[in-house]
Specification:
Layout lengths: L5 E5 L18 H14 L4 E6 L28 E5 L10 H7 L4 E7 L1 H14 L3 E10 L3 E2 L5 E2 L1 H12 L5 E3 L1 H15 L1
């Protein structure tokens, strides 16, 4: 597991696929994430599943409600790490950083939802903690949102701005093909 990049899958829960979640971009993100997950599993590379459990009873992600459950295709295997969070950042109030350090993991490949919320928050912390962090642009998605001035922004605009916030400062934004190459290179070096 040492020197292998860890796939960090953020908030791929049933509620994220429901219409109440809002208008989103990257409609093929689930398929892309599932392909990455399958590839990581084939190579026995480390995987962390992050699950948001809200503190608000009205939330889609209130614990033990259907919306908080992992989507079927993203059910963690028994040996895969699961991190529960109640704030956007997966590192806050969790043992994620310690677990990664104990495993000797230096590289993170981050996918999931939503780009401008939990993905961005987690990636900022990962970068600040010194992890080599990669965000797979087509394996993340965002929802439409009004900006601070009240102008409605499409999900594509929100996604693109969030990636721009991260790239080159906290992380490197990459394609799915580049993520496959990153893992293949690590596997080749470990043999």
């Amino acid at each position: 597991m040492k020197n292998m990049p860890c796939l960090l899958i953020i908030d791929m829960q049933k509620g994220m696929s429901w219409p109440q979640a809002g208008q989103r971009n990257n409609p093929n993100a689930e398929q892309d994430i599932a392909e990455l997950l399958a590839h990581w599993r084939v190579h026995h590379a480390p995987i962390v599943h992050v699950r948001h459990l809200s503190l608000e009873p009205e939330s889609l992600f209130w614990p033990e409600q259907d919306g908080a459950l992992f989507q079927d295709v993203f059910q963690p295997l028994s040996h895969e790490m699961v991190i529960d969070k109640s704030v956007p950042d997966a590192f806050t109030h969790s043992n994620l950083a310690v677990w990664l350090q104990e495993k000797g993991i230096k590289d993170l490949v981050v996918v999931g939802v939503s780009t401008n919320n939990s993905v961005e928050s987690t990636v900022r912390t990962a970068g600040n903690l010194g992890f080599n962090t990669y965000v797979v642009q087509e394996a993340c998605f965002a929802f439409a949102k009004a900006d601070f001035n009240g102008y409605e922004r499409s999900a594509d605009e929100v996604h693109a701005m969030s990636l721009a916030n991260l790239d080159g400062e906290y992380a490197t934004v990459i394609s799915q093909d580049s993520a496959f190459t990153l893992l293949s290179s690590a596997v080749a070096q470990s043999q």
